[in-house]
Each structure stands twice: as C-alpha cells, then as structure tokens.
Design brief:
Blueprint lengths: L14 E2 L4 H4 L23 H5 L4 H10 L2 E6 L3 E6 L2 H8 L5 E2 L18 E2 L11 H9 L5 H20 L7 E2 H18 L7 H11 L10 H24 L5 H7 L8 H32 L1 H9 L4 H12 L5 E5 L3 E3 L2 E3 L4 E4 L1 H4 L35 H18 E6 L4 E2 L8 E3 L1 E6 L3
Parallel strand pairs: 3-10
Antiparallel strand pairs: 1-5, 2-3, 4-7, 6-14, 7-10, 8-9, 11-14, 12-13
Helix pairs in contact: 6-7, 6-15, 7-11, 8-9, 8-11, 9-10, 9-11, 11-13, 11-15, 13-15
C-alpha cells in the first residue's frame, strides 16, 4: 500500500457510493401511517425515520404474518426483498453461494446501475465471498481468540470500574456519552493500539461511516468522503509504523498478513470501517440498550439484582432484544426461489435480524426482555454462516463485565426519559439516554 494517501490520489473510477438509498430517501412524509391499514405492497420497512421513532414494529409484525418475503422496488435502490421470519433469514445467511455479500451489506444501488459520484466505494471482507473473505478474516481473527480475550478481561474490568466510579450519583447524566461510548472507544483503541489520547477520533469515524447525510452527523456525502479519507490517512501512518515495528494489534496483523499486506487503499479503509463499526456501534448500543431494556421491564431488573449469576443469560437476551444492526444485505447470484417467491439474479435480499429476533414461532413473548430466556443464545444478531460476527465473544464479555461491575456499585440505574435513537434503519441504537444512579447501600 502506498505511503501517501489523500483526496487527490484516489482514482475517480474508484468513486461510487457508500450511502444507502433507502435511508437517504424520505419514504414516509407527514404522519406515519397505521401499518394495519396499509396495502401490504405499500409497506417498506427501509426508513430511518421508522427506526429513529421506534415505530417499525407494527410493520414487521404485519410482514411476518402476511408477506414474510416482501418485495419492494424504488428508483434509487432497484429491486429488493425483505426477509422477516427467523428461519428464512437463517437459511439465506448460511447460503453464501446463492446469496453473495460481494455487492455490499446494506441496501444499495442495482448492481448494473451507473453509480453517482460523491462517496467512496470501499471494500471490506464482510462484503466479500470465499476465498478472499476467509483469508482476510483469518488474518485478524487472532485478536479475539479465547486466550487473547482471557488476557484482556482484567484490563476491561479495570477500565469499566474506573469509568463507573467517575459517574455522578443522584443527578442526571447521559449514559451513552459517559459510559457506552467511552468504554467501547477505549476497547477499540486497545485493539488497534491507537494513540489513547486521540481515541475520540475512532468514535467520530464510526459515526461518520454509518450516518445518513443530513441527520446531524454529516451534512453531505462529500463531507463523509473527506472525513473517511482523513481516517485512511491517519491509519496509513500507523500502518507504515507497524510495518517497521509490529505488535499484536489489528493494524500490525493487517500490515504483515500474507493476504492483507498488499491491500489497495480503499480496501484498507473498508476493513478499517468494518472493524471500527463492528467494535463500536454494536457493543455501544447493546450497553445502552441493556439499561433501557431493564428499565422497561423492572421485574427483570429486580430478578437480575437478586440473582447476579443470570448476567451471562441476560447478556444474550439483551443482544436479541436490542439487535444493534437491524439487517444485513445479500445479493442473489442466480434465479431461485425463497419459499414461493421467485428471486432474480441481482436482486437484493435484506435479512431483517431485528424482525427475526421478534419471531414468536421461535421466541415466546418476543417483545419482552426475559433475562433467563432458555433459547436467548439462538438470536440472529451475530448472523450465521461464514459472516457470523467475529467479535461476538468480545462483545459479550464487555457487556458481562459492565453489569458485574454495575451490580456491586449501584442499587439502580433509573432511565429518566425516552432515549434519542439513531437515525438509521441499519444501525439500531441510541445517541442519548438520560439516567440517574442510586448508589448501593453498604
């Protein structure tokens, strides 16, 4: 990879689109309609507004019941299908031969469309098929190997305790900013061996990579492009440094891996975005979601306080209930059938994990948080098959340690008002969650 990376030396032919047409179109104007009163063919769940207002549930319930393999076509996105039932999602996710990741993991433009300028057409191993996917994933997977996780746990516990001990008691503060963002950013800085005092850059780049332009994070695709190139330039410097002085961090692994050391700049950027978002947004929103969910279901919170040994089960249930990434996309490689629906080669398939995790044929009382749910680990949130989340055990450990440390310090975490949610139909998360702590009596 070249040492000098900048806006000026990225070939214009590499410029395409990193935006999601479904999120950038305002699909619902005015008042959100009642999904039970709509024609089934008019339902389109790809709307950032539905998710930011937490009003998508009725649409998914209707689709699961009446049209679980649901067709939409829009001018920007072309043809796409929404899978909303658990078993259909699982089967497609595990069939990488007929349903490829190589054309992107979020709703995009038709594969034969002339793509607009203004953003970066990045490549990442989650959006690849074998053998390249397997080779690049194998290069970085040692960072989350069981032995390495065991070695990291004391540091995670120490940092978690330090963050919790610095929180104000009996006065309002934002849990997202003070806890969820801080803990996940610290972890990311450790995995990358990133300069710790500049770790806020990682949070910013994660937000920029997934934001809908005009939603408050970035105003335009051009701004996103400029900030992501800044990210690439910064990490290129770290790459060159680790080429000379390797460590056991993710950048060193990429710089010296046989299948990754000669990556093109935009492929390097794509894998950076994957690792940053995968290590930040998902864990961060599960941390916030756990506090919100336990407040919505106070009996479950009391159950947890009375039986802290339930924390590991609670962690899996929170990840099911929250579903921090709402969907993943695949592209059909051939004409085929899913149930009785004819899918054409090139059609986009959206696997709505957020809907499959609420499928009552699999999960009893699926809309409720039940911290000792027997089959909570069967959730879809980490995906299936070759693309199953590489960092799933790390995410679970971070959430487990957080709640182990919370329960020894605080009587309760009280949510003071409804959270502000992420404006995205892909990242299902929170940007603000006002809370108040009550300290545990000694």
């Amino acid at each position: 990879m070249s040492e000098a990376i900048s806006e000026n030396n990225i070939n214009d032919r590499e410029v395409a689109s990193f935006k999601r047409p479904g999120d950038s179109e305002e699909l619902l104007q005015g008042e959100i309609p009642d999904p039970t009163q709509m024609l089934i063919e008019d339902i389109n769940p790809v709307s950032a507004r539905l998710f930011s207002e937490d009003k998508m549930w009725g649409f998914f319930e209707r689709l699961r019941a009446e049209d679980p393999i649901h067709f939409n076509q829009t001018e920007l996105a072309g043809r796409y299908w929404s899978l909303t039932r658990y078993e259909d999602i699982k089967k497609v996710d595990a069939d990488h031969a007929r349903f490829s990741s190589a054309n992107g993991i979020t709703l995009g433009f038709p594969i034969d469309a002339e793509l607009p300028e203004g953003a970066l057409n990045v490549s990442m191993f989650i959006a690849m098929d074998p053998p390249t996917h397997d080779q690049q994933r194998m290069t970085v997977s040692p960072v989350v190997a069981p032995r390495n996780l065991a070695n990291m746990e004391p540091l995670i516990r120490q940092r978690t305790g330090k963050v919790l001990d610095a929180l104000p008691v009996n006065e309002p503060f934002d849990w997202v900013e003070r806890v969820s963002i801080e803990l996940t950013t610290q972890m990311l800085a450790t995995l990358f061996d990133f300069p710790f005092e500049q770790r806020q850059k990682l949070t910013r780049w994660s937000d920029v990579a997934t934001a809908v332009p005009g939603s408050g994070i970035v105003d335009t695709e051009e701004q996103r492009r400029a900030e992501l190139i800044e990210c690439l330039e910064y990490f290129t410097g770290l790459w060159q440094e680790r080429k000379r002085n390797p460590g056991d961090d993710l950048i060193s692994m990429l710089a010296h891996g046989e299948d990754t050391r000669d990556m093109e700049p935009l492929e390097f950027l794509g894998n950076l975005i994957l690792l940053i978002v995968g290590g930040n947004d998902t864990t961060r929103n599960s941390m916030s979601g756990s506090v919100y969910a336990l407040n919505k279901f106070p009996r479950e919170y009391d159950k947890l306080i009375a039986a802290p040994q339930l924390i590991p089960k609670m962690v899996a249930e929170v990840i099911r209930w929250q579903t921090p990434l709402a969907y993943m996309r695949r592209t059909a490689t051939e004409d085929c059938l899913i149930q009785d629906k004819k899918i054409l080669a090139g059609d986009q398939i959206l696997m709505w994990y957020v809907s499959g995790n609420r499928d009552d044929s699999v999960f009893e009382r699926p809309n409720e948080l039940i911290i000792d749910r027997p089959n909570s680990r069967s959730h879809l949130s980490f995906g299936f098959g070759i693309h199953r989340c590489m960092g799933n055990r790390l995410a679970e450990m971070q959430l487990r340690v957080l709640w182990e440390e919370i329960l020894v310090r605080f009587e309760k975490i009280e949510v003071l008002e409804e959270p502000t949610r992420t404006y995205s139909s892909f990242v299902k998360g929170y940007t603000r969650l006002p809370v108040r702590l009550t300290k545990k009596k000694t």
